[in-house]
Amino acid sequence: MGVTGCGNPIKDAVEGVQEKLMEGAIEQLVESETGVDIDGLFSAGVPEGFPASVPLPDGEVTAAFSATEDDLQTWMLTVSLSRVEAHDDYLTRLAQEGFVDQSEGDMGGVLSVSLYENDIYAVGVMLLQDASELGMTVMVQEREQ
Which residues pair with 76 in a beta bridge? Predict the structure, then answer.
């Protein structure tokens, strides 16, 4: 009689440790080569320290990180969207929070890029849509004061 349907907890733990070590090694390599301090490179949650004054988009966060260069912080998150209107809703929310539309561009309906700013942050919003995927990336960067 055998046990079926159970995972191997030791293997799972080892794989988890390996992933954390790899993430740390890559973050250290990027920092040593570029001088940019990156945190949470492979995380799928809202990056630590994400500004409360920047609205979070609706949707599942599938990738995220934060980085610091020259004492300026940048946060990036990618979300999976269920409908394209969620992108438009997010741009409306940015405007409602006092961010000003600086530029917009559309590349054949496959990629849309928008830049919004206030006195403290610049927010880039990229919508990528194809036959099988709909996603949005939000990049927030502190502005030099």
Answer: 65, 139
The pTM score is 0.71
Strands across the sheet containing 100-107: 37-43, 60-69, 72-80, 134-142, 121-129, 111-117, 100-107
Tell me the two tokens of residue 57: 């988009």
Q: What is the model's pLDDT at position 41? A: 52
pLDDT for 7: 56
CA 64 remoteness from chain centre: 4
Q: Are 93 and 104 in contact (CB under 8 A)?
A: no
Query: Which residue segments constitute the domains of the chain, with CATH numbers given?
Result: 44-142 (3.30.160)
Token output for 66: 């934060």
- Length of the chain equals 145
Q: How far apart are the first and last CA of the chain?
A: 69
- State the DSSP code for 83: S
Mean pLDDT per 10-residue section of the chain, whose length is 145 residues: 50 48 47 52 77 92 85 89 91 96 85 92 90 86 89
- 20 Rama sector, left if φ>0, alpha if ψ -120 to 50, beta otherwise: alpha
How far apart CA 27 and CA 49 sit, in angstroms, is 18
